[in-house]
Amino acid sequence: MDQLKRQAAARALERVRDGMKLGLGTGSTAKHFVELLGEKVAGGMKVVGVPTSEATRAQAEACKIPLTTLDAIDRLDLTVDGADEIDPALNLIKGGGGALLREKIVAAASDRMIVIADDSKWVDVLGRFPLPVEVIPFGLAATQRAMAAAFAQSGVSGQMVLRKGRDGHVFVTDGGHWIVDAHLGRIAEAPRLAGLLNLIPGVVEHGLFIGLATIAILASGQGIRVVERR
Ligand code: 5RP
Prior knowledge:
Blueprint lengths: L1 H12 L7 E4 L3 H15 L5 E4 L2 H9 L13 E6 L3 E2 L5 E2 L6 H9 L1 E9 L12 E5 L4 H14 L5 E4 L15 E6 L6 H9 L4 E4 L1 E2 L5 E6 L2 E6 L2
Parallel strand pairs: 1-2, 1-3, 3-6, 6-12
Antiparallel strand pairs: 4-5, 5-11, 7-9, 7-10, 8-9, 12-13
Helix pairs in contact: 1-2
The site of ribulose-5-phosphate has 18 residues, from helix 2 and helix 4.
């Protein structure tokens, strides 16, 4: 599986050009991309990156990839990131690694977003992977009630679980927030649910990435499949 992730990352790297401003994703697949990009930079390629998490920042610094911020530059040319699920419209579920907020800010500031993944992430309908929703700790129960209402309005329901870290404590994001994972099973109307979640005050951001990805690079034992958004 890790080899497939690396193959997808390598294929995405072929689309990187000298001088590009890049969004650097988070997760085990994006990690391959950052490592391979670091090799290119060591070989003389000139790029600048904006990391989507503190973990990616640390890796990029170790790889000596020059970094900048979205305060210092206007737009990014390209973001390369992984995903937890990808549907045929190239809508995504992201946030399994807890970095969805910065990932979405960076993707939205990019002219293009390439999603890299092994083919197991490809689904007909989003939702088997629990939907991560980043929330403010204050008023959590009220936020969860509002989330349940949003789910009902878009025809889904399911258990909500406050994410815990490996140490058993509540998982805290880079932004200091918590994550509620919503086990919805099948989200038939993902854009509608995304819009409803956006209206809830205690929701900082959610893991539905609608209309952000432009290309998916999917690696399987049969080879690499490239899907472009129409
Ligand atoms: C992190 C993410 C990751 O991109 C997503 O979880 C996929 O990770 P991996 O490449 O390890 O399967 O959204 O917030």
